[in-house]
Amino acid sequence: xxxxxxxxxxxxxxxxxxxxxxxxxxxxxxxxxxxxxxxxxxxxxxxxxxxxxxxxxxxxxxxxxxxxxxxxxxxxxxxxxxxxxxxxxxxxxxxxxxxxxxxxxxxxxxxxxxxxxxxxxxxxxxxxxxxxxxxxxxxxxxxxxxxxxxxxxxxxxxxxxxxxxxxxxxxxxxxxxxxxxxxxxxxxxxxxxxxxxxxxxxxxxxxxxxxxxxxxxxxxxxxxxxxxxxxxxxxxxxxxxxxxxxxxxxxxxxxxxxxxxxxxxxxxxxxxxxxxxxxxxxxxxxxxxxxxxxxxxxxxxxxxxxxxxxxxxxxxxxxxxxxxxxxxxxxxxxxx
Length: 336
What we know:
Blueprint: E1 2-10, E2 15-18, E3 21-24, H1 28-33, E4 42-52, H2 59-71, E5 78-82, H3 88-98, E6 99-100, E7 105-109, H4 122-133, E8 140-145, E9 148-151, E10 155-157, E11 166-168, E12 175-178, E13 181-184, E14 197-198, E15 206-210, H5 218-224, E16 229-234, E17 242-243, E18 246-247, H6 248-257, E19 261-266, H7 279-288, E20 291-292, H8 298-311, H9 315-322
């Protein structure tokens, strides 16, 4: 019987009603007590990391979770993290970079309604997660939600209230869970290495600029004073506008000269970017050698850049690591 460590962080799954609204109050052991059926297929140990609304999740919390997994890695066969849904995709992506090539499963789950409500998705999600974490074929960082298993770098919350809140973006679901059956869609196997690669460094100085029509290029200048890396969410397949009131080229040139890392991505959820198609993207990418996220999710792009900038400041090493596929995060890219 597999021994699973459940790590609670708060979130809706652990909420109770208060005068101020839903607040994370339930302990990790209380969450486990709601799914007694899990004891028929695994042993469970509870660990309370913190108890916060996931809106308040920060990179330092990701480092705490990675350290907890590393310090307890030899004691357990799998890990389940109970988490709020709002930033769950960011945490899943971040842990995919902080704990790479894990032969043991690290499952992140949560719920749209608290576990102590009469009608809730929490019990099913937690039971499914424990079942998947107990599966011999399971490995690496994944999200389990609404019966779907999603690679940790491919999840995105697309619905605010429905039980099917998360989708796998630009990549198939790894598996589905139907009652006590796990149906794998991919014959996904861990690398031969017997131990995962742990990291304990992140650089949180990463900013995001979402373009809107007539966006002021000066916003990039302001962000450059605070950030070491900037992700630009452009329109369509990717490009930068040139308005009579201001041109992004000047700001980009200044940031590159200052040693900042710029990543181009798209605001469109599915199918990814390709800056080589239109002149507004091709010329500026060629001129400055900008990184491009292609089919990566925004959550993966943000957390991967934080992880990379925590390891190195060398531009060529940043480029190499960004285009290195980790936990299925990027499939399509062109090397310089």
